[in-house]
Amino acid sequence: MAIVLALLKAAGDLDGDGVEMVRGDGAVKRVYALLAAYVADYPEQCLVTCMK
Question: Which Pfam families does the UniProt entry name for this protein (predicted)?
Answer without folding.
Answer: Plavaka
